[in-house]
Design goal:
single chain, 82 residues, mainly alpha, 2 domains, 2 helices
């Protein structure tokens, strides 16, 4: 970092760790609260422990994989508009 350059709060690795661990705590609390309420899903598997959390994670994972493949189809050369 250059002298006199503005420093932001996420530039400090300690703050990045705080955000990371804070997110882990929020996810753990969210998963634990799944045990304390009665679920009324349309399908039987919607009653499984933390089903919606895992479903969202798996869907996001496959969306990233699909986007990486779609990039091959849609990507143009750097000087495409020249």
């Amino acid at each position: 970092m250059k002298q006199g350059e503005k420093r932001y709060w996420l530039d400090d690795p300690c703050n990045v760790d705080k955000v990371y661990y804070g997110l882990l705590v929020v996810c753990a609390i969210s998963a634990i609260t799944d045990l304390f309420y009665d679920k009324h899903g349309h399908f039987s598997w919607e009653g499984w422990f933390n089903f919606h959390g895992w479903y969202g994670f798996v869907c996001c994972f496959f969306l990233v994989l699909a986007a990486k493949q779609l990039r091959r189809v849609l990507m143009r050369k750097e000087d495409y508009y020249d």
